[in-house]
Design a protein that fits this description.
single chain, 433 residues, mainly alpha, three-stranded antiparallel beta sheet, 19 helices, 54% helix, elongated, binds zinc ion
């Protein structure tokens, strides 16, 4: 695999370097017109059973890299052998090949992959990178900018940093959890919201992102027929890793390079990289919706017996509306407790329309005579609770329900907090940017 990457960008590198050299020495011009260009290439790794062959790879690379004008950081070379005998052999051959002694390491640090059959320790640098991504998210949460700006910043500066380099491994769950929490803090999940619903609408799950990247790498390699299919998923290979993640997301293997998702009724094929990445994200959202419905939250229990299909078109429409309207975002994620719920928590609060005590969600949104809703409440109980777009309604009905619920949320918030400066009020100002 690495062999392919090595060749892939070379024509480009060579061209860039030639152009750079020409530009660095403009004819007849002084020093102030001098410009420096640099092209960076990433790490390369080789594994070989024979010491000689492994060392030859280094030598060949060095020759080649000087030919195309790459500047190597020789200090970063790491060579390791397994077992006492091989280590002795390596030391002998190293001297013959005139390779620095400092390059010989006990353990090779390669990020994102496994380098030994035994259980591998988590390299410090992988950990540091994830921690740095988490710190970035933490810093974002203290910035005085709107949530929309923060969301873009998370997508630009936090997740790519965290997702980088996981070719044949995934990060430990605990660290992913810390990052997820920091990201949600930065983009301000409505406090009482149901996490899985928030994940369906706005989630940026790191493991899903890593899986889409692995899918796209393998898809590219597959086109060159560089990746053979192996019957049993193997740990430490990109394919094994991807297969495990896909299984966890509800994909069943139907034949080599082809998966089927019963819930989504979709087929995933390695040849279709872009569609595949999209479907992997969809299966994550699907899974999160199921997780919510099977969960312990009061709203989920109330929905027992109701069929809630996942329909991607309408989830997309719902998501886009949540991006634009903070009140809708809050109710769609389950983040607007009713006055009755607030009362249970010890805070006295009445219906914002009629002043009734113990006003439930159903009352304030649908049945209160002063709520402003004409006619029967929507049939779909999931819609009545969260206002999502659904196929069972026309698009006009969907829009009406959403804007009605937004208006009620606004009244609840005004009644609850008055003109006090609240997190939600800040969202109101920042949300529409
Ligand atoms: Zn009322």
């Amino acid at each position: 695999m690495l062999g392919l990457w090595m060749i892939a960008g070379l024509a480009h590198v060579r061209k860039q370097e030639e152009a750079a050299k020409a530009e660095e020495r403009p004819e007849g011009k002084g020093d102030k017109d001098k410009r420096h260009n640099r092209v960076y290439m990433d790490d390369r790794s080789w594994v070989n059973r024979r010491t000689k062959a492994a060392l030859r790879a280094i030598e060949q690379w060095r020759t080649f890299s000087s030919r195309v004008g790459l500047k190597e950081n020789e200090g970063k070379t790491q060579i390791a052998a397994k077992g006492k005998k091989c280590k002795e052999e390596l030391e002998k051959q190293r001297q013959e090949a005139a390779i620095e002694k400092s390059s010989i390491k006990d353990k090779v640090e390669v990020l994102g992959v496994i380098t030994a059959k035994t259980r591998r320790k988590w390299p410090k640098r992988e950990k540091e990178r994830l921690q740095e991504a988490t710190r970035r998210a933490d810093r974002l949460s203290t910035l005085q900018v709107s949530r929309v700006v923060k969301r873009v910043a998370v997508q630009t500066f936090v997740l790519p940093k965290a997702a980088y380099g996981w070719v044949a491994r995934v990060p430990p769950k605990a660290e992913v959890g810390k990052l997820t929490a920091a990201v949600w803090k930065a983009v301000r999940k409505p406090r009482p919201a149901a996490v899985p619903l928030a994940e369906v609408l706005e989630g940026r799950d790191l493991l899903t992102l890593i899986a889409t990247r692995q899918f796209s790498i393998i898809s590219r390699l597959r086109k060159q027929e560089k990746t053979p299919w192996t019957k049993r998923p193997q740990g430490g290979t990109a394919l094994g890793c991807l297969r495990a993640t896909l299984g966890g997301l509800g994909w069943t293997l139907v034949s080599p390079w082809k998966w089927r998702h019963g819930g989504l009724k979709e087929t995933l094929q390695i040849e279709e990289a872009d569609k595949g990445k999209h479907l992997i994200r969809e299966s994550y959202r699907y899974q999160q919706l199921r997780k919510f419905l099977g969960g312990k939250r009061r709203e989920a229990k109330e929905l027992k017996g109701t069929v809630v299909d996942y329909c991607k078109y309408n989830v997309g429409k719902t998501r886009r509306r949540t991006e634009a309207v903070p009140e809708y975002r809050a109710v769609a994620m389950g983040g607007v407790p009713s006055p009755a719920v607030m009362e249970k928590g010890g805070k006295e609060e009445n219906c914002p329309h009629c002043g009734k005590a113990s006003a439930t969600h159903e009352h304030v949104f649908w049945t209160c005579p002063l709520a402003g809703w004409e006619g029967e409440p929507p049939q779909d109980r999931f819609v009545r609770r969260f206002g999502w777009y659904r196929y069972s309604q026309t698009s006009e009905e969907n829009d009406n329900i959403a804007s009605h619920m937004e208006g009620v949320v606004k009244k609840i918030w005004e009644n609850r907090w008055g003109k006090r400066k609240t997190r939600e009020a800040e969202d109101l100002r920042g949300g529409g940017e």
